[in-house]
Every structure is written in C-alpha cells, then in structure tokens.
C-alpha cells in the first residue's frame, strides 16, 4: 500500500531544502504546495516533534519577522537558532530578504 504524501509531508520536504543561513516565508512555502495556505504551513511546522530535523526556524512571516508562537518559547528559540546561522535582524527585528531570503529556481 503506497503512502500518498500529505500537504504536511510536502511542506516538510520544502522546508528541508532551505539552506543554512537563509529564510523563506510561510506564504512562499504555501505557494509551492497545491491547495495550501500560509496558515496551513504554520500549523504543519507547529506540529513537528521537538526532536525533528526539519529546520522550521528558517520560515518567517512576510514582514521578515518571527511570528509569535502562543505562550511558549518558540519565538525565542527561533531567534537564537537563526542568530547561530548568521541571520541578522535589524532594529525593527526584521530580516533583509535580499540578503537572507531563499529564492529557489
């Protein structure tokens, strides 16, 4: 019995392609998955187990910022992980897409 990939599987596969030190937006990922929305990308990434190797931290919002995640520490962890990858935030806590954006062919 073949397993048909779910939208979540497709999201995870795409996010795994984002290189170290680069970021993509929820909407950008959604446009690569038929029938998917930016919110669905967020839900998929939020469902990842803590020990996942999917680089979820590399997905940010369209304003170039980290999206708050409920009452947990996800946003702080995401910022720390991106800092460790050399991604730079400006005074408004934004990332410059021209420098750090991922734009696959």
What would you say this structure looks like, in words?
This protein is mainly α and 105 residues long. Helices cover 37% and strands 4% of the residues. It has a two-stranded parallel ribbon. The chain has a single domain, classed as Winged helix-like DNA-binding domain superfamily/Winged helix DNA-binding domain (Arc Repressor Mutant, subunit A, Orthogonal Bundle), CATH 1.10.10.10. It is built from five helices and two strands, in the order αβααβαα. Helix 1 (7-15) packs across helix 3 (38-46). The N and C termini lie far apart (33 Å).
Radius of gyration over alpha carbons? 14 Å
What is the number of helices? 5
Low-confidence stretches: none
Number of strands: 2
What brief labels describe this structure?
105 residues; mainly alpha; Arc Repressor Mutant, subunit A; two-stranded parallel ribbon; 2 strands
